Amino acid sequence: MAATVLERWLAWLEGVHPRGIDLGLERITEVARRLELQSDPTPIITVAGTNGKGSTVACLESILQAAGHRPGAFTSPHLLRYNERIRIDGKPVDDADIVAAFEAIDRARGSITLTYFEFSTLAAVWCFRAAGAHPWVLEVGLGGRLDASNCLDPEVAVITAIDLDHMEWLGDTREAIAGEKLGIARPHRPIICSDPQPPQRIAERAAALPAPLHQLGRDYGYASGDGDWSWHDDHRHYAHLPRPEWMGDAALANAAGAVAALTRGLPSLGVDAASVARGLAKARLIGRQSRAPGPGGGWLLDVGHNPSAIELLARRLAVHREHGRVRMAFGLMARKPLRVLIERLAPVVDEWYALSLDDPQSHSAEAIERALADVGAVVIGRGDAAGARQQLEQRAAGSDLAVAAGSFRVVEAFMQAGVVPCNAGGSSRD
């Protein structure tokens, strides 16, 4: 089948810059200036952090829609289609809009080279401006201070939970990583921090800017109820808020941060308790502990790939094992700590399938199987997602749960193999 125009553009973007990751703002800032993207008065909410960015954006996007706004949301990576990265009013933009953005960026850049992600960031903002989206919600791709999204000035900076990830780029301590993430903040503009145990660097940097810091547990908070939850600050109390199925207890901190960003950070948007409730009821997220139908207890898909995300998954699986067995198909990118993550999951997984991902930058199925053998795990197979699906579904009985986890590439592979999350019609990220 012949490649579409968008597919040809994306293939070209893969090699247009000599490095896939080239942190720095000089090149993209100049192109944004030429496109006059920085002069647009639309308010921007930028979301940075290690874990919880996607769920925060999903909540922001849905609540804004419920409040009568038409938000633009930029996230990454995508699972099945590039268009998932750029959404307006909750819907992925069309190929033609993205191609028009790429063409405009290519004309404006002249001799300046841009990475794939830099092109994507500018394309998102170009599409938002062209469509009159309001406000814009940008998810940071890597870090914050030098991330492509930081070529624009946010009205509100949201910092989610900080963990050790991308240490080769951001530093090897939570304090150092927090400093990089907080690079998205601007003087005198609100910072919303939803990390329940924030590194001290966040408060220090906020004071130095200076910028008002709204900290979870100090300036606003939440409480989990029986099937619902509540949010509060010094002036408001929103009770009996709905909780989407994908929103576990830990994700409530992200939802609380989203509510704080809209009520405390941008009160001019007029988001009230009713809008919050309606938005949360419709919020969708694919890839973070997403349920999918299947034999036995069905499937659970999770893109989590760092220690904190794996810890959250392990807690959920521990609860499930009170009702049925857990079988996991596991794949991981090579730069992630294979043994550390497997050791955390091993006590809550009964049987494993070592996944082979179609990506040279992933751990091989053989390496995964060796790591599993080292911890005494029971391995029932090795191969691709289609083979894993067949084996795990054949063995399912009663309330047994089949899990596919470890990477965005894992969830992508299983969706292509026909394991479709129950909420796949909505926003497709975390």
Automatic annotation (TrEMBL):
State the pathway, as annotated in the record.
Answer: Cofactor biosynthesis; tetrahydrofolate biosynthesis; 7,8-dihydrofolate from 2-amino-4-hydroxy-6-hydroxymethyl-7,8-dihydropteridine diphosphate and 4-aminobenzoate: step 2/2; Cofactor biosynthesis; tetrahydrofolylpolyglutamate biosynthesis
Name the UniProt key words of this record, in alphabetical order: ATP-binding, Folate biosynthesis, Ligase, Magnesium, Metal-binding, Nucleotide-binding
Q: Name one GO molecular function term.
A: ligase activity
Q: Record's superkingdom?
A: Bacteria
Write down the Gene3D superfamilies for this protein, in alphabetical order.
Answer: Mur ligase, C-terminal domain, Mur-like, catalytic domain
Q: Where is the Mur ligase central domain?
A: 47-190
Q: State which Enzyme Commission number(s) the record gives.
A: 6.3.2.12, 6.3.2.17
- For the keyword Ion transport, the answer is no
Catalytic reactions on record: 10-formyltetrahydrofolyl-(gamma-L-Glu)(n) + L-glutamate + ATP = 10-formyltetrahydrofolyl-(gamma-L-Glu)(n+1) + ADP + phosphate + H(+); (6R)-5,10-methylenetetrahydrofolyl-(gamma-L-Glu)(n) + L-glutamate + ATP = (6R)-5,10-methylenetetrahydrofolyl-(gamma-L-Glu)(n+1) + ADP + phosphate + H(+); 7,8-dihydropteroate + L-glutamate + ATP = 7,8-dihydrofolate + ADP + phosphate + H(+); (6S)-5,6,7,8-tetrahydrofolyl-(gamma-L-Glu)(n) + L-glutamate + ATP = (6S)-5,6,7,8-tetrahydrofolyl-(gamma-L-Glu)(n+1) + ADP + phosphate + H(+)
Q: Enumerate the spans annotated as Mur ligase C-terminal domain.
A: 299-408
The entry sums up its family as follows: Belongs to the folylpolyglutamate synthase family.
Protein role: Functions in two distinct reactions of the de novo folate biosynthetic pathway. Catalyzes the addition of a glutamate residue to dihydropteroate (7,8-dihydropteroate or H2Pte) to form dihydrofolate (7,8-dihydrofolate monoglutamate or H2Pte-Glu). Also catalyzes successive additions of L-glutamate to tetrahydrofolate or 10-formyltetrahydrofolate or 5,10-methylenetetrahydrofolate, leading to folylpolyglutamate derivatives.
Protein name stated in the entry: Dihydrofolate synthase/folylpolyglutamate synthase
